[in-house]
Amino acid sequence: xxxxxxxxxxxxxxxxxxxxxxTHRLCKKHGGGIRCKSTNCQKLAQSRGLCVAxxxxxxxxxISCAKLSQYKGLCLVHGGGRRCxxxxxxxxxxxxxxxxxxxxxxxxxxxxxSPSTTVTTxxxxxxxxxxxxxxxxxxxxxxxxxxxxxxxxxxESPASQNLESFLIDPIDASRYFSTIVENVDQMN
Length: 188
Hints:
Shape: elongated
Structural class: mainly alpha
Strand order of the largest sheet: 1-2
Strand content: under 5%
């Protein structure tokens, strides 16, 4: 048998509010819930009667650490954050279980494999964009009023067509990009 609640949840007493009441027949939005014990603080208490700003919340399991825990009871400094899902990468997850570097490579890998040599760019080609890093010698235009333009690029090198190795081994990617920078420096 399943247990059922004997009491029906009380709704917030503010008209047209459908949320569940916490304290004083009010939801958290309308003033219900336990507030921080610190003077002049109206934030909701997390633990020990304090908000996160005044010491509430779960802290790192390391005794001398006062930081908030992130994952498995530890703060980021003591190894509590979730890591990138790519093998060999020890950076923290940011986007879709990947660090920012691998997420950018994965999102940009599909357009770079296309056989076309024309790329539609936004108003400004950023020096930090993947297309610039892959082919810095391609001519790019800055267009006012955020219009789009088509930039003709030379055919891609075999290394830029095969980004699979970059996703597996970021060291190869850094070597490739350093050779591009050296080639650009030699041309100038």
